[in-house]
Design a protein that fits this description.
The structure is a single chain. About 60% of the residues lie in helices and about 0% in strands. It has about 450 residues and is an all-alpha fold. Among the domains are: about 30-100, Rna Polymerase Sigma Factor, Chain: A (Orthogonal Bundle); about 335-390, no CATH class; about 390-450. The chain has a two-stranded parallel sheet. Helix 5 crosses helix 8 (about 205-225) and helix 14 packs antiparallel against helix 15.
């Protein structure tokens, strides 16, 4: 039986919903795949509130998607796929809980409730606190970012369960091998089970301790969507928009938190350029090639207005500093007139609060634009020797661009090929293929060469 077709299960109207069911058998597999991309977070979060257990909720949601493949091929795609999936998943969770209750009632001597683990069950939130987070997805993000788990495990588990990213995508975001990330996610799930950490929305007083992990989740979600790790398109709009939604909700929930302002500002200022990051044929364009007159000025105005508040009140955080860098890019009259020296200074501050090799690479690129390619290339060589960015495709790509500026075209070709070997996104591969051809003085190819 279908849920209300005009709204999601959380009561929000579904934009672009079907006017009626599609004919049976027409595009059901594609519809399930699309619903997985768009609805997974909503369905899992809504189911977890019923199941009270994230593992059970995930199992029930997966079963609901499998059931949809069969049901939609026979009955047609429902008007509201998300509501259909949520109803199916919740029913499975309720049935599982009833079976467990019945079993425990019939076998009281064989199955006894396990004793609580000391310190593993925090006190229930005060009346009304459970509703302090206005969205099921955001509740689940805060819930998964449990302090009993290591920080990287919190973020990885949340990206996997709530955001629906693959293990491969999460591994690329963390710059670690896929088996390493798979093991981290598995260990996190096992720890939740062993420590008997139940699904429980944290109370208002618990939110600040989990905030940094939550901000990291939203930022990595946006980053993954901003330049998709694989596929034909530069951007995965579903991930970008989900991250922006979560950032806006965080701003409404915690308006006095500087880093919340900084994250929202960073996402707005970066996403303002989305329409210009590829040309009409889908070819990737660098910042220097983009038409700044087509950037979204409303998003830029909203983002820049948040930056001062993100930087005030002591040592700024990593998102506030990144937002300030993005604002300098957005407000420059042209690419040639960008204040690269000021951007280098901001990267110096960012390295103090967030000593990341990726930040160091971005600083090296800015330094090359401020002081010349030789200076930037020396910094990139140090990062190569360091080894932490060995599988990061943007390091050899940045090195290749600087080598070209120095007239070292053959060395540039080798660096571009190294970047190409690490790249699975089709638009980026085509871009690198063009760069290789240009460095060799050949006509620009229509497609990337191997």
């Amino acid at each position: 039986m279908d849920a209300n077709p005009e709204t999601r299960d959380d009561g929000r109207p579904r934009a672009g919903g079907h006017r009626g069911r599609a004919q049976p058998g027409t595009g059901s597999a594609a519809a399930v795949a699309d619903a997985h991309r768009r609805e997974w977070a909503f369905v899992l979060a809504a189911t977890a509130r019923v199941a009270g257990d994230i593992d059970l909720a995930e199992e029930c949601v997966q079963d609901a998607y499998v059931a949809a493949l069969d049901a939609w091929s026979r009955q047609g795609v429902p008007r509201n796929p998300g509501a259909w999936l949520t109803t199916a998943a919740r029913r499975r969770a309720i049935d599982a809980l009833r079976r467990d209750k019945t079993l425990r009632g019939k076998l009281p001597l064989l199955i006894e409730p396990a004793p609580p683990v000391a310190g593993s069950a925090p006190p229930a939130p005060a009346p009304g606190e459970d509703d302090v987070i206005p969205d099921d997805r955001l509740r689940l993000v805060f819930t998964c970012c449990h302090p009993a788990l290591a920080r990287e495990a919190q973020v990885a588990l949340t990206l996997r369960l709530v955001c629906g990213l693959t293990t491969t995508e999460i591994a690329q975001a963390f710059l670690v091998p896929e088996p390493t990330m798979a093991a981290r996610v598995t260990r996190a799930k096992k720890k939740i089970s062993a420590a008997r950490i139940a699904y429980r929305v944290p109370g208002l007083a618990e939110l600040p301790d989990r905030l940094d992990a939550v901000l990291t989740v939203v930022h990595l979600l946006y980053t993954t969507g901003h330049t998709a790790p694989a596929g034909e398109n530069v951007v995965r709009a579903d991930l970008v928009e989900r991250a922006l939604d979560l950032a806006r909700m965080l701003q409404s929930l915690m308006p006095d938190e500087r880093e919340v302002r900084g994250l929202l500002a960073l996402l707005l200022l970066t996403d303002a350029r989305r329409a210009t990051r590829a040309d009409a044929s889908g070819r990737l364009l660098l910042l220097a090639e983009q038409d700044g007159s087509r950037w979204n000025r409303d998003m830029i105005a909203e983002g820049t207005a948040l930056v001062p508040g993100a930087l005030r009140g002591g040592c700024p955080g990593r998102f506030g500093v990144q937002a300030a860098i993005a604002a300098l890019h957005a407000e420059a009259p042209s690419y040639a007139e960008t204040d690269w020296r000021q951007i280098v200074k901001l990267y110096d501050v960012l390295l103090e609060v967030w000593p990341s090799p990726v930040v160091a690479l971005n600083r090296a690129v800015a330094l090359a634009l401020a002081e010349g390619p030789e200076t930037g290339l020396a910094q990139i060589q140090e990062l190569e020797d360091d080894g932490r960015l060995a599988d990061y495709r943007y390091l050899p790509a940045a090195k290749a661009d600087l080598l070209r500026r120095l007239g070292r075209d053959e060395d540039a070709v080798q660096a571009y090929r190294a970047a190409l070997a690490l790249t699975e996104n089709d638009a980026e591969r085509e871009f690198l293929g063009r760069r290789i051809a240009e460095a060799r003085g050949q006509p620009k190819p229509g497609h990337a060469s191997g």
